[in-house]
Amino acid sequence: MLIFPFIALLFAASSASAQGNVEYNAAHNVTPITGTWSSGSKHVVTGPGFANPAQETFTYPKTTGVGYSFSDDGWYEIARYRFASNASEPNCIIGTVVWVHGHYELLGNGSIILTPAGDGYQQVQAPCAATSNFIQNYNYTEMFQHWQIVSDVNGGGGPKLQLFQFDGAPVAPLYLLSTEPNMLPKQVLRNVSATS
Ligand SMILES: *[C@@H]1O[C@H](CO)[C@@H](O)[C@H](O)[C@H]1NC(C)=O
Ligand SMILES: *[C@@H]1O[C@H](CO)[C@@H](O)[C@H](O)[C@H]1NC(C)=O
Ligand SMILES: *[C@@H]1O[C@H](CO)[C@@H](O)[C@H](O)[C@H]1NC(C)=O
Ligand SMILES: *[C@@H]1O[C@H](CO)[C@@H](O)[C@H](O)[C@H]1NC(C)=O
Fold it and tell me: Whose CA is closest to 67, among 48, 45, 86, 49?
């Protein structure tokens, strides 16, 4: 009985190494990644309607979700609005809004690396915590193990971007709002040293 999982593992390993470099062709992607994407109800969208970095403010979307934009000259922007429950106190909902932008790179092995420009920030609202509402810097590099753009057969056939996190698990699918990236200016927009 023990030998079968072992053989399955061998096959998994050899098929992974046989894949080699990912070819970004029509079979991989129905459209380029360039453009404006949003999850779920599509209310969370990058650009000036979401964040004002110079003022460190946000315009809260109607519902939670995540928005991404990718430009053809290598910039990305992320808008994220989330609720999570406090693990030790499940009734205490923690709301987080995040804005970040920077440079993305499509690696030959199929992964995407998003390197922030340093001016990202988030607002955390945690009614049960000692400090219940605060703004802080947000400057995390993100890696998606792979990605794929398919036709959204259940939603009218438009392009659907599927990102897979570091462990291969898919994150919420993103739908194309526009082939133009809806982005704030592609430069550092906030003096981080000025943040307390
Ligand atoms: C933000 O993160 C990037 C990538 O790790 C780093 O190069 C940069 O120095 C960081 N910027 C700030 C202000 O921390
Ligand atoms: C989570 O709940 C505990 C217990 O009420 C509280 O001490 C802590 O500050 C809360 N954390 C957040 C982030 O709300
Ligand atoms: C692709 O290469 C990057 C950088 O070496 C690595 O972090 C990532 O895990 C690799 N992705 C895959 C799917 O092997
Ligand atoms: C950062 O601060 C300097 C000095 O106060 C100012 O000249 C510059 O315009 C600021 N940059 C941004 C992006 O706000």
Answer: 45
User: Distance between CA atoms of 89 and 38, rounded to whole angstroms?
Assistant: 30
Q: pLDDT tens across 98-143, in order? A: 999 999 999 988 899 999 999 999 999 998 888 899 999 999 999 9
Q: What angle do CA 3, 11, 106 make, to 5 degrees?
A: 145
93 Cα–ligand 1 center, Å: 29
SS3 assignment, position 147: strand
Element (H, E) at 52: strand 51-52
The minimum-distance atom of ligand 1 relative to the CA of 140 is 2
Kindly report the backbone phi and psi dihedral angles of residue 23, in degrees, each rounded to the nearest multiple of 5, phi listed first. Answer: -95, 120
Q: What residue has token string 């990305």?
A: 76
